[in-house]
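Anyone able to model this chain together with 2',3'- cyclic AMP?
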Amino acid sequence: KKNRIQNIFLNRPIMRSWELDHETVVILKKLGEGAFGEVSMGEYTPKKGGKPVKVAVKQAKPEKLTKVQIKEFMREARIMKNLSHENVVKLYGVAAVQEPLYMVMELASNGSLDGYLKKNPDLRPEVYNEMILQAAWGLEYCHEKNIIHRDMAARNCLYGDRQVKISDFGLSRPGPSYRMDSSRKVPLRWLAVETLLQYEYSFKSDVWSFGIVAWEIYMKGIEPYPGMTVAEVNDQVKRGYRMEFPPNTNPEVAKMIMAKCWAEDPVSRYTMTEAVGFLRDFFGIKR
Ligand code: ACK
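re: yes, here you go
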């Protein structure tokens, strides 16, 4: 079995710089279930005798995964390793010599953003604005690094140290665009109209999904298009239907998202840099 894993990974010199030993990681407590297996809280000791850091560890059990899924797990890690930003979850490395494979990440003390929003429904209004701008900063940074996230959603963001951190790069691909195989199951409520119509992903389809995340934040973590089935969403969004924002949303922000994130034509949408500029000026928040 060890040979099989080694065949898949160890012949790739690109792995070596971010590989780490299983012995440097201690798993402490299960946090939840992810697509490839459990996510746990743990400790990682980068240097012998050094100080351990609290981390989140995603475990993948190769005996349960197909070769394609293992490659996807490694692809996610490879993308994350090139990203370093306050609003993107940090990757320490991957332990790939034994089973289960470990992906060792920054621990976000409050867990997933949608869960945090649901559990804390009475945050100060400024906090929601900050969260939206932080998500925008994180996604702008991914785009600067030529990464289309492709799965922006509050459930794929984490919250820790009062910072939103974009996570779950499992579907991410290099830009500028990507056409998906139509047979794959997708999170339809977050998809841009051109993705619904032509399976087309781009930086601009991420901008659409960012608008949905802003809506989720203002709506305290409820599911987008409440009361509608997935089939209805698919149908209505193609006909031009867009969600309303709650009354407490600033009308200028709601207008910006409707016009500049959910425009039918991707060309008319903002880039993430433009969205960041608008929000930063509007909220008067500096970094
Ligand atoms: O809402 P949660 O507690 O936050 O439940 C999910 C679960 O693991 C499955 O994804 C949590 N989780 C995932 N990655 C991290 C992380 N880096 N830091 C803290 N919690 C995490 C997530």
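The pocket of 2',3'- cyclic AMP is lined by residues 31-34, 39, 56, 89, 105-108, 111-112, 115, 158 (CB under 6 Å).
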